[in-house]
Structure formats: C-alpha cells, structure tokens
Design a protein that fits this description.
By secondary structure, this protein is mainly alpha-helical. The chain contains 19 helices and no strands.
Length: 358
C-alpha cells in the first residue's frame, strides 16, 4: 500500500519537475508579480481570514473528536427532545453553552448527526450557534455601543431564522442529508438487517470494512481503541478534511476583496432593495468570522439603514463563501442549495421587517 501511494505521488511530481526551468527562466518577472501591491494585499487578507477562522475550526475539531470517543449514540438519543418544537428551541439556544464559530460548528454537527441527532436540530444549531452566543453578543455591543437595538435585533432575527429553517427541514427533508463517508456506508451494508444484492458484493464489502477497521480483519464489531493517540489521529483527519475548504474559501475571498473595490460595491447598493442585496452579498463574499464582522458592519453604520446592517450581521455567520464549501463537503449538494435559498429569503424578509419596526 505504501509503495502504491509513493508511485502515485511520483507520477504527480515528475511533471512538476519540468516546470523548474520555466520558473528559473521567468524568475525576474515572477519576482515582480510576487512583490506587487495586489499580491501583497491578497496574502495579507488570506492570512488574516485563515488565522481568524483556524482557531475556531480547531476548537470545533477537538470538540468533535471528544464527542466521537466520549458521547455515545444512546446519550445523543436520550438528550434529543422528542417533540420537534422543543428540539428546535433547544438547538437554537445551544450556542450559549457551546460558543463555536461557524468554521468549527460543521465538524461538530457532522459528528452529532453520525451519532443520531436529527437533521432539523443539527441545522438549527449550525445556523444559530455562531450568532446566539455570549462572545458574539459582547462583540456586537462593543461595535455599536450607542445602538443596543442592533445587538438585540441581530440575536432575535438569527434565532428566528434558524428556528424557521429548522422547521422547514423537519417538514420537507425526510432522508439523511449527510454525505456518508465510505466507512459509514460499509458499516450500514454489513449490518445484519441490510439485504445484499449478491454474494460477490457481500464479500467485497466485508473486505472493505476489515481494511478500515482498527481492530484487524477478524474483528466483527469494527471497534476503535479509545486512547489519546486515536483521539489526536481523529482530530488531525477532521482538521485536514475541513481546513482545505477553509483555505480555498479564504483565498477566493481575498482575491475578491483585492480586485473589487468597496466604493464600487457601495455604488451597487443604492436603493431600498439593492442595499439589502449588497450587504448580504458583501457578507457572503467577505466571509468574516462572526466574532469580528460587527466591527466591519459598524463602518457602514452612517451609510446604510438598520435593515441592511442586520442582514449583513445575520447572513454572514449563517452563509458565506467558505462555509458554503464546508457545507458542501458535509451535506448533499441539493440539500445545501435548498438550505441556502431558505436562509437568504428568510434573512431578507426578516431584516426588512426589522427596518420597518425599527
């Protein structure tokens, strides 16, 4: 297996070796591009976004690993409210206990769903947790010290949108929306109650399960040792799996922020409806952490009304570019598209209503 992996890596590196003379030949020009103002700004914005989000992603990964080893399926089922209304309300307030950024929320929720948490509760937790928590509450108050109504409106609308989306998922989503990894599919197929299509597929599935099992090919229960080494191995796998989407999202966001000026974006936001569309699109593109986006929004407090500001503060933690990629790595594409549309429509309607009432 190691030899095969080395050969695959070698076939990738050999073509790259032919690029070395090209890089040497164009070294002076590449040096100018590398030191240009635009590229320097891209590097600065990329590093700032990644460093801002990485600690929260790491926190979520460690929490996910702890849940993997110490939280059983039976415990999740016992603690999950049976009634959907109670489940949505509890999930909407879980962020007060677990103040995790949206970057770290997805691996935690994916682990909980693997252990039996219903999809509607998980989605409610994903959407409300990054906003309805004491850290974001305090940051928003500090960003708008003379306007406490902005903080109250942000918390209230975030909870309402998360609960509404959770209710929609409960009503319309009847199947598990997770992208099940191969190991999970293998365990499902080898369950005694699963009817195999043929004896050939049965033997193939058992071989795959043995290959993924830590207990060896003769272990019928596929148990994993619960020790610190396994804990950190699991955390490392989770971090690598989720951070690649964070890197891609941060890089594309940095490019957009560099090559599209804020003045051009603000010019697009003139108008009663366009201002909402601009601020929501701006939140999606900037991909800021929920603990710091309030300070960016405060810079627009003299340009935009209450409603567009709230739409920026609520949509960003629920749906931005990097979180969309992470959602697509966890849930099925069709589910993510429907979820995104529901969030956008509800945030737009809710922030418009807040602007009228305010």
């Amino acid at each position: 297996m190691r030899m095969a992996a080395s050969l695959k890596l070698l076939t990738f590196l050999v073509p790259c070796a032919f690029l070395v003379p090209v890089v040497i030949a164009f070294a002076p020009d590449l040096n100018k591009v590398w030191n240009s103002d635009a590229l320097q700004n891209i590097k600065t914005v990329f590093v700032s976004i990644f460093l801002e989000a990485a600690p929260f992603l790491l926190m979520g990964v460690f929490l996910s690993s702890l849940m993997q080893w110490f939280v059983s399926e039976e415990m999740v089922r016992k603690l999950t409210p049976k009634h959907p209304v109670g489940g949505v309300l509890v999930a909407g307030l879980l962020g007060i206990i677990f103040p995790i950024c949206e970057c770290g929320m997805i691996p935690v929720v994916r682990r909980l769903m693997h252990k039996g948490m219903p999809a509607y509760i998980a989605v409610t937790f994903i959407l409300s947790g990054p906003v309805v928590n004491p850290i974001v509450f305090t940051a928003t108050l500090l960003a708008f010290p003379n306007h406490p109504e902005i903080t109250i409106a942000r918390m209230g609308l975030a909870f309402a949108v998360a609960a509404a989306v959770g209710g929609l998922v409960y009503v319309f989503v009847k199947h598990n929306p997770l992208r099940l990894p191969k190991t999970i599919v293998t365990e499902v197929k080898t369950h005694p109650g699963f009817k195999m299509a043929s004896s050939h597929s049965n033997s193939h599935t058992h071989e795959g399960a043995a290959a993924h099992s830590h207990g060896g090919p003769h272990d019928p229960h596929h148990t994993h040792p619960k020790n610190w080494r396994s804990f950190f191995l699991h955390a490392g796998d989770e971090f690598v799996d989720m951070s690649k989407y964070l890197v891609i999202g941060a890089l594309i966001t940095a490019c957009i922020q560099t090559f599209v000026s804020r003045s051009d974006l603000i010019a697009l936001g003139n108008g009663p409806v366009a201002s909402y569309v601009f601020m929501m699109g701006f939140a999606y593109v900037l991909s800021l952490c929920s603990t710091s986006d309030a300070f960016v929004a405060s810079a627009f407090s003299h340009t935009f009304a209450l409603g567009p500001l709230i739409s920026f503060l609520v949509l960003g933690p629920m749906l931005d570019f990097k979180s969309t990629l992470m959602l697509l790595s966890t849930f099925r594409t069709r589910f993510v598209i429907g979820l995104s549309l529901a969030i956008i429509v509800l945030v737009f309607a809710g922030s418009w209503l807040v602007n009228i009432l305010g």
